[in-house]
Amino acid sequence: MDWSMLADPNILTVLVLQGLVRGAMYALMGIGLSLIFGILGVVNFAHGELFMLGSYVMYLVVGIFGMPFYLGIVAAAGVVFVCGVAIERGLVEQLRRRAGRDWISDSFVLTIGLAVVLQNLAHLAFGSRQYGVAELVAGSVPVGELEISLERLAIFGLACLAVLLLWAFMKFARTGRAIRAAAQNAEAAETLGIDVRNLFTVTFGLGAAFAGVAGALLISIYPASPTVGAEPLLKSFAVVVLGGLGNVSGAIAAGLLLGVLEAFTIFIAADGWQNVLTAYLVILVLLVRPAGLFVLGGKRA
Amino acid sequence: MFLEVNDVVAGYTKEVSILNGVQFAAEEGKVTVILGPNGAGKSTLLRTVYGYLKPRRGEVRFRGELLNGRRPSEMLRHGIAYLLQGHSVFPSMSVEENLELGAWIFGKDRQARARAIEDAYDHFPRLREKRRGAAGLLSGGEQRALEIARLVMTSPKLLLLDEPSVGLMPKLVDSVYEEIARLKDRKMTVVMVDQNVKKAVAIADQVYVLKLGANSYDGPQADFLLRMDEIVKGWL
């Protein structure tokens, strides 16, 4: 390893850009997981399978029907949103009504089971083959003597757009404001006439849609397959631990940070070592700042 | 009767009942206070009226209409407001956002929402000064003012208050009771659970005492004051 390469501004730029693209995916996954945990208290172990659903939808819309890629992303968001709503109403809500006070720990088993079911359904429907889309956007931009593909930049840009839309929804929309209120004090929200049950459903759908968008955006890097969600799930857990469980802006910051760190690790060490670094970071943060890197005081992860 | 609780049995788990056949009524335009030692089921009674708990037996009626089985989020639209025990502002949202949420049931009616918020500011000028600040940074008394403002901005008919003065600085306690007495002037019916016997009874018209989830006493304020020592003896 020639360390002087790290002093080259072109290499640095490419690494940071690659890291941000990687980080944008982690952020999208982490946001979804954090939203669902923050409002419902459910840790969604099937989050990777929602990513998987998004990537299959993208494959069908773009790879099979030959539609433009942005339609694929919109379709993935829509389909996975509906799946999220169905999962919340059909399974999570039923469990909450029946299981009484212990329903949170029961929900772990529910979402783990759901992950297994969804993986096997995908296997039945599509087999174990990987289905990808070659390139969403052709071309590349020069960075000195190096270059970065336009596709990567498009992925980053679209991820940022998704985050911006979520922010605007939470800040300005009535439902978004109610979701924030319910996250802070669900009982108080109910006394103001807000139907928290419906908010739970919308939030689960939104969180799911974010995983679906991540799956769709990354199809050229992670082709659709029944188990494609495993790695994104693992990374999204790392992101929510680093950012603080249930903390959406923390998930964004932690996602981008993790992406950049990993890009550098792959460059300096070798592909594979980024996972070791992530695991170490998670352990370190749990030991030193268990509430998350970006939380002042706050709840423990 | 305005609010009527008939022979209600309710509890948090299947095995244990907290309320064992409670009988309760509140008259329109009056302040009714519910007293009793810890664990008597006072808060549980309010929670049952508001739909957080389903009665296993008996019925809750509001202006003759059966409330059993209704959900808490429907209550404000029926004209019943509930002040939760402890602080219940949304701490990281601004004062104005808290009030916006207080006007939630006005739905898309922008004018009604704006008018209700203006009224709240007129009533509590301190809140107007701090409208952009986070509600969690207000003092304890200001937070309570915001909670009361948020509660009455839709002009509910019946207010259920769960220990409105608990956790406040002594000098603020009086102002909370003054505020409640003023609500009475605004033709609101108040049902209040309280540990602060003297101050609560001072603004009460009717007093109920619960013990171990059952009725132990009820009577008008004057009668309670006469027999207070005898009734309160043995609580502590």
Distance between the termini of chain A: 37 Å
| Oligomeric form | heterodimer
How is the biggest beta sheet of chain A arranged?
2 strands, antiparallel
Average of pLDDT of chain B: 91
Distance between the termini of chain B: 33 Å
What is the string of SSEs of chain B from the N terminus onward? EEEHEEHEHHHHEHEHEEH
List the total number of helices of chain B. Answer: 9
Q: What share of the residues of chain B does DSSP label as strand, in percent?
A: 15-25%
The string of secondary-structure elements of chain A, in order, is HHHHEEHHHHHHH
Shape of chain B: globular
Considering DSSP H and I runs of 4 or more, what fraction of the residues of chain A is helical? over 70%
Class derived from helix and strand content of chain A:
mainly alpha
- Estimate the mean pLDDT confidence of chain A: 89
Topology record:
The complex is a heterodimer of chains A (301) and B (236).
Chain A: H1 9-40, H2 47-64, H3 69-99, H4 103-126, E1 140-143, E2 146-149, H5 150-172, H6 174-184, H7 186-191, H8 196-217, H9 230-243, H10 248-268, H11 273-288
Antiparallel strand pairs in A: 1-2
Helix pairs in contact in A: 1-5, 1-8, 1-9, 1-10, 2-3, 2-4, 2-8, 2-9, 3-4, 3-8, 5-6, 5-8, 6-8, 9-10, 9-11, 10-11
Chain B: E1 3-10, E2 19-26, E3 31-35, H1 42-49, E4 57-62, E5 65-66, H2 72-75, E6 80-83, H3 95-102, H4 110-123, H5 125-129, H6 140-152, E7 158-162, H7 170-185, E8 189-193, H8 197-202, E9 206-211, E10 214-220, H9 221-232
Parallel strand pairs in B: 3-8, 3-9, 6-7, 7-8
Antiparallel strand pairs in B: 1-2, 1-4, 4-5, 9-10
